[in-house]
């Protein structure tokens, strides 16, 4: 089955990425929703999900020392490049990167690499369709792997239920979690604000997504924030042949809707109609 995967990303957090995703969802004919912002997921708060299933996610292995076997020779501590082993030969799990050098060099086999839970993946039901989301334990690594697990679960769910669209709230920035969010998708929407720092964010995100075969659209949020910033963003998009699919002026009613856990495009339908939101959605569906 041909599944239309659409991802919404941004150069940093706080640009309105999740607000846009929430506004799109009711118009996408009951899609599978995937929240891949695993470091700070919040779509579930807005949609008021009912969790059907929760499962632990094992992102890596970490060293565990058997004190009954350990002879305190200190060789593991000497070879650890991450300073994850203390003088009394205890593992600092927040520093352990799972490289397994300590296990390899231990002369008495006192160290074993064991699976480590770094987060959870949830399958939930919402008013607007099923949602797959996850939460990385604060301070843990492997967010890219967790994002990949969310997308894998969302695609399996779409295939099982016969749904043709997956809408993805991607991770912000340009790190491995963003790469995991966009790999293999058909359309990427970049949400940006009209500031000079926003232009810098757009440039770096655009350089990243150019390495993938996909349609790219730009949405300028709070487009009336800065006239100079807007012109700079528009000039860049023209130079790079990027489509500006939507411009959204600042609107206090959108802020109010979010604070009340309501969908902005539903609560402020006339405002979104005036933006040509229907045309934007139709271009997304194609």
Task: Describe the protein.
- The protein is 36% helix and 26% strand.
- It has 286 residues and is an alpha/beta fold.
- It folds into two domains: 4-58 and 120-285, Rossmann fold; 60-117, Alpha-Beta Plaits (2-Layer Sandwich).
- Strands 3-4-5-2-6-1-7-8-9 form a nine-stranded mixed sheet, with helices on both faces.
* Rg: 22 Å
Structural class, from helix and strand content?
alpha/beta
Fraction of residues in helix: 25-40%
CATH topology of the largest domain: Rossmann fold
CATH architecture of the largest domain: 3-Layer(aba) Sandwich
How much beta, percentage-wise?
25-35%
CATH superfamily of the largest domain: P-loop containing nucleotide triphosphate hydrolases
Please count the beta strands (DSSP E, at least 2 residues each).
Answer: 9
- Gross morphology is elongated
Largest sheet: 9 strands, mixed
Runs in which pLDDT lies below 50 for 5 or more consecutive residues are none
Number of H/I helices: 12
* Overall pLDDT metric: 94
Outline the secondary-structure elements.
Blueprint: E1 4-10, H1 17-24, E2 32-35, H2 43-47, E3 50-65, H3 75-79, H4 101-105, E4 111-126, E5 129-136, H5 143-161, E6 165-169, H6 176-182, E7 187-192, H7 196-209, E8 215-221, H8 227-239, E9 243-248, H9 252-259, H10 264-267, H11 269-274, H12 277-285
Parallel strand pairs: 1-6, 1-7, 2-5, 2-6, 7-8, 8-9
Antiparallel strand pairs: 3-4, 4-5
What's the quick description here?
With 286 residues, the chain is α/β, with parallel strands linked by helices.
């Amino acid at each position: 089955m041909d599944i239309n995967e659409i991802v919404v990303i941004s150069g940093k957090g706080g640009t309105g990425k999740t607000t846009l995703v929430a506004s799109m969802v009711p118009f996408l004919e009951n899609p599978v929703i995937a929240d891949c912002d695993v470091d700070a997921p919040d779509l579930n708060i807005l949609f008021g999900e009912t969790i059907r299933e929760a499962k632990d996610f094992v992102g890596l292995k970490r060293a565990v020392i058997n004190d009954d076997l350990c002879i305190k020779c200190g060789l593991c501590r000497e070879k650890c490049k991450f300073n994850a082993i203390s003088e009394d030969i205890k593992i600092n799990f927040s520093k352990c990167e799972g490289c397994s050098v300590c296990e390899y060099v231990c002369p008495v086999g006192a160290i074993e690499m064991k699976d480590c839970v770094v987060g959870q993946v949830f399958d939930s039901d919402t008013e607007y369709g099923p949602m797959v989301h996850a939460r990385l334990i604060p301070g843990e690594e492997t967010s890219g792997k967790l994002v990949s697990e969310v997308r894998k679960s969302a695609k399996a769910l779409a295939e099982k239920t016969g749904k043709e669209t997956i809408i993805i709230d991607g991770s912000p920035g340009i790190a491995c979690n963003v790469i995991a969010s966009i790999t293999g998708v058909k359309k990427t929407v970049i949400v940006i604000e009209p500031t000079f720092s926003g232009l810098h964010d757009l440039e770096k995100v655009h350089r990243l997504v150019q390495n993938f075969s996909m349609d790219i659209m730009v949405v300028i949020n709070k487009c009336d924030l800065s006239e100079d910033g807007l012109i700079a963003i528009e000039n860049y998009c023209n130079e790079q042949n990027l489509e500006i699919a939507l411009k959204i002026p600042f609107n206090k009613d959108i802020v109010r809707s979010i604070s009340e856990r309501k969908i902005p495009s539903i609560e402020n339908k006339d405002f979104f109609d005036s933006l040509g939101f229907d045309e934007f959605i139709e271009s997304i569906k194609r």
